[in-house]
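Supplementary notes (optional reading)

For those who missed the lab, this is the record we used. Protein: Dipeptide/oligopeptide/nickel ABC transporter permease. Length: 340 residues.
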Amino acid sequence: MSNMTETSNTTDTTTTLTERNERKNELPRNAAEVTTTATRRRKPLIVVRSMWSHTEGRFALIVMAVWLAVSLISLIWTPYSLLATDGYHVWAKPSAAHILGTDGTGADVLSWLMAGSRTNLLIVILTIACAAAFGLLLVAAMVSRHSALAGASVVAVDALISIPTVLLALILAVPLGASIMVIVVACGFGYGLNLARVARPQALLAARSAYVEAALWSGASSLRVFVGHVLPNIMPVMLVQLSLSAGTAVLAESGLTYLGIGVPSGVPSWGHSLATSVKFINVYPLTVLWPGLIVTVVVIALNLLGDALGDAADPLANTQLRVVSKRAGTNPAGDKGSAA
């Protein structure tokens, strides 16, 4: 009985020590997880601060904020109803009643431009989402370890990228008619091809690196490797390219709407305001000036936004982001540096 009691006490003591050791090991692990989570939350703030510290980035952020604010305000308020017209005050000059004047139907130009801002914002968001999804799918195929799939994808991109966006929009307009979907699909397809071609070299370099080989040998799936290792490496290039595509989408909306295959008649957009007033530019130039000026400023801001965001989100170019990544124990280039 005495031996059994001693054995039982020894077992209990060993169990207690084991539980204490496990608790001690859990504490650093939990602390590391908290640190990593806090670091991830700080990264967007660091990126925004870095962009704000440069003149180009500050200008782009201000324009984007104003664009978003005007789009939201136009959902609930505009100076005049879009259906309100005044036949006695057509092509009126700017005044206290109509800050930017009126168009050929006597409608308030400012109201139409405010309402058009949300249409253009919607087109840009949908186009960029479509281009990003299609482009990343092509990049994944182009850096695939299946040589046949990779080779066929490269050839397909080189062949399809030669198709003009306007021609594709004309083809889509036959079954769909003039609609926002024509702009989104045509531009998303063309910009996705450009994104794949620009991002392929960087993605291929990451896909053939030693840490990706280690991750694959450890049993990580191709999707996990692409999302965890390849995508972070191409993110700066991707942000710049998508920002340029956003600016081009604004121009494409104006051009396709002018051709009659873009935004339908009656739907407010900047392209619609340009298309309805460009015929009278020699007589009433102010009606063309306002939408043209807005499109120009927004396109410039989107282009500057891509450059500023690409530099701010790149740990190799942003010192603060690189320091935070090192404190979190991650690779400054955006990769974990170990098998997933």
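If you only remember one thing from this example: DSSP finds eleven helices and no strands in the chain.
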